[in-house]
C-alpha cells in the first residue's frame, strides 16, 4: 500500500488495485478509517469511526496537501499501468 502522506496521527494511503477507481485516499489512525475522494474537491466517501470534528481536521489536511496526494496517486498509477 503506497503511503502518500503522514500528518500527525494520520496516514493517507491507497491500494495498488485502487487505480481502477477515481482518485481517492484512505486515512487511518489506530483502528479508525475513512475514504476521501480527491476530485473535483475533497469529499468524504466512507467513515469508519471518526467523529465529525476529526473528519473536518482530516479534510482540511487533505485540502492543504491535495497536490501532493493527487501527484502520489497519478505517479503510482501511471507507473503501475505501464508495468501491467
Walk me through what this model shows.
The structure is a single chain. The protein is of the alpha+beta class and about 80 residues long. About 35% of the residues lie in helices and about 30% in strands. The protein has 2 helices and 5 strands; from the N terminus they run E-E-E-E-E-H-H. It has a 5-stranded antiparallel β-sheet with strand order 1-2-3-4-5, covered by helices on one side. It is globular.
Describe the structure using short key phrases.
single chain; 84 residues; five-stranded antiparallel β-sheet; 2 helices
Largest sheet: 5 strands, antiparallel
Q: Could you say which overall geometry the principal axes of the C-alpha atoms support?
A: globular
Low-confidence parts lasting 5 or more residues at pLDDT below 50?
A: none
Q: How many DSSP helices?
A: 2
Secondary structure tally: strands:
5
Mean pLDDT, to the nearest integer, reads: 95
Intertermini distance: 17 Å
Question: Could you give a quick summary of the protein structure above?
Answer:
It contains 2 helices and 5 strands, in the order βββββαα. The chain is α+β, with helices and mostly antiparallel strands.
Amino acid at each position: 500500500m503506497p503511503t502518500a502522506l503522514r500528518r500527525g496521527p494520520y496516514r493517507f494511503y491507497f491500494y495498488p488495485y485502487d487505480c481502477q477507481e477515481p482518485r481517492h485516499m484512505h486515512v487511518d489512525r489506530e483502528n479508525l478509517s475513512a475514504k476521501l475522494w480527491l476530485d473535483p474537491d475533497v469529499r468524504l466517501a466512507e467513515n469508519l469511526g471518526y467523529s465529525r470534528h476529526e473528519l473536518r481536521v482530516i479534510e482540511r489536511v487533505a485540502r492543504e496537501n491535495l497536490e501532493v496526494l493527487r501527484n502520489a496517486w497519478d505517479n503510482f498509477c501511471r507507473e503501475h499501468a505501464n508495468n501491467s
